[in-house]
Amino acid sequence: MNFNERIEELLDDMSIFEDWTEKYEFIISLGRKLPPMPDEYRKPGNLIKGCQSRVWVGTELVDGKMIIKADSDSLITKGLIALFIRLLSGLSPAEIMSADLHRLDECGLKEHLASTRANALSTMAATIRKAAAALS
Question: In total, how many domains does the chain have?
Fold first, then answer.
């Protein structure tokens, strides 16, 4: 699936829920489903700066596709990074750099997050794009 198909699927999934409590539960469940992050990715260089919670993001290029591994010590933050993994992991670095991540705003997520979490969302996106640029 390309990015546009992935974002449409995610927005459809999010639209099923009637209130933000259910949407938060969905986001948290995405984080809980993440596979454990290998220890070699849990290093200071992979820790995202500027997030209230600790968030590690590691990437590698496999057959021209960027694979994203991530973890956080906060359930909601782990869910937020899981959104990015769902949308971007397995795409080429060029696809990631050209992906319109502002489409994620269509579900109203930023308006329903505390300002620190909304800033973390932007920082996560920037970190992943920077990694994609480095791998391209």
Answer: 1
Residues annotated as part of the active site: 51
CATH of the domain at 48: 3.90.1010.10
Q: What is the pLDDT of residue 49?
A: 86
* Percent of the chain residues topping a pLDDT of 70: 100
Higher pLDDT, 67 or 116: 67
How many beta carbons lie within 10 A of that of residue 26, not counting itself?
16
Q: Has this prediction a pTM greater than 0.85?
A: yes
Expressed as residue numbers, the domain containing 68 is 3-135
For residue 33, the number of C-alpha atoms closer than 13 Å in the C-beta half-sphere is 11
DSSP-assigned letters across all residues of 47-72: BPTT-SS-EEEEEEEETTEEEEEEEE
Spell out where the chain has E strands: 55-62, 65-72
